[in-house]
Amino acid sequence: MAGGAAFSDAKPTPILKDELDIVIPTIRNLDFLEMWRPYFEPYHLIIVQDGDPSRTVRVPDGFDYELFNRNDINRILGPKASCISFKDSACRCFGYLVSKKKYIFTIDDDCFVAKDPSGKEINALEQHVKNLLNPSTPLFFNTLYDPYREGADFVRGYPFSLREGVPTAVSHGLWLNIPDYDAPTQLAKPLERNTRFVDAVLTIPKGTLFPMCGMNLAFNRQLIGPAMYFGLMGDGQPIGRYDDMWAGWCMKVNLALSIVALNWIVVRKVICDHLGYGVKTGLPYIWHSKASNPFVNLKKEYNGIFWQEELIPFFQSAVLTKECTTVQKCYLELSKQVKAKLGKIDPYFLKLADAMVTWVEAWDELNGSGENSSNLTNDPEK
Ligand SMILES: O=c1ccn([C@@H]2O[C@H](COP(=O)(O)OP(=O)(O)O[C@H]3O[C@@H](CO)[C@H](O)[C@H]3O)[C@@H](O)[C@H]2O)c(=O)[nH]1
Ligand SMILES: [Mn+2]
Fold first, then answer.
1. What residue segments make up the domains of the chain, in order of their start?
2. I need a surface site. Which of 155, 159, 176, 290 has the fewest CB within 10 A?
3. Which atom of ligand 1 is nearest the CA belonging to 215?
4. Which positions does the site annotation Required for activity cover (predicted)?
5. Would you state the pLDDT for residue 1?
6. What percent of the chain stands above pLDDT 70?
7. Is the ipTM of this complex over 0.90?
8. How far is the CA of 132 from the centre of ligand 1 (A)?
9. DSSP class of 58
10. DSSP letter string, 103-171
11. Whose CA is nearest to atom 17 of ligand 1?
């Protein structure tokens, strides 16, 4: 068995029912929970009701939950509620803010239990827990995929010095049936369905960005919660459906640290990459039966499709001062870079940069200051 595995696949996966919250954004209903009942019932649900707060959302009996609508968000955050999006799935990040647990699993209300090729139901939550509890390998690619899975290992030539791996911060699951395509692709391929079940979990290599989808996502809130802000989207904003993308880029970003005043450059990668935290993608699959309208989506995504051609180079070359000793401080520094370098693309980014600051203030207000939470250390054990 590979070195460093937190636990062997052969043993039952810890339930973590007291260490994990399930966050669900909804503008619809929660009937989908009936299908997930065997897997979700032991957990606490945080339901973020978007849209009209006077609408009653019925939660099926037997679930332990909190439900927050817009009135609750405004009551809890006061003026800081301005950083939580309205009428966009970005509202889900409010659930990350109010949770007190170590782990988060977030899922959309049109995602159902999928079956593997043998016809067996997939317990997506269990696989996410396995992904999060086992190390990642961002520093050197293992060609036999996840070396910590039962029946796999590191291949010949893999440095033994790297076989302990690093802590996993994010587990990014995938989708059978309706894949997470952007609106142009959906419009071009309206009948395309994803029938390909790939039995693999991959670590996204260090320094590589990726399009994070919030549909079937789990993360270690204690490690990188403050970086998982889903931005300002939806009502009153010039962009929508780039919430999860924005969070994924900020969370993963490789920040080069340049201290011009001291004429030396120390390349530091904060948040996931620098700390050597890993981001995994692949299993588990859910069954996505999309309910959103591609034409409406096109309107929401238009600016994002255009702007991201400038956003990606920004994230690939962002810089950071060395005083950033917590995820919060790194995030605040990133917000300064957003204001300085992206404001010229559109004034929206000036507003977004301010909202990033408000988010961190709200995080610290509800969860304690940056100094004693989500500290950046080079020692993943701390
Ligand atoms: O205004 C809204 C719209 C939706 N929601 C809730 O958010 C999720 C996702 O919504 P939906 O399934 O309609 O959208 P998709 O196109 O399938 O979602 C993909 O795009 C991302 C949007 O950023 C999303 O994360 C991806 O999965 C559902 O639970 C809706 O109820 C909302 O709260 N407010
Ligand atoms: Mn959907």
1. 111-254+265-367
2. 159
3. 27
4. 156, 163
5. 38
6. 87
7. yes
8. 24
9. P
10. EEEEE-TTEEE-B-TTSPBP-HHHHHHHHHHS-B-TTS--TTS-TTSTT--PPTT--GGGTT-B-EEEE
11. 290
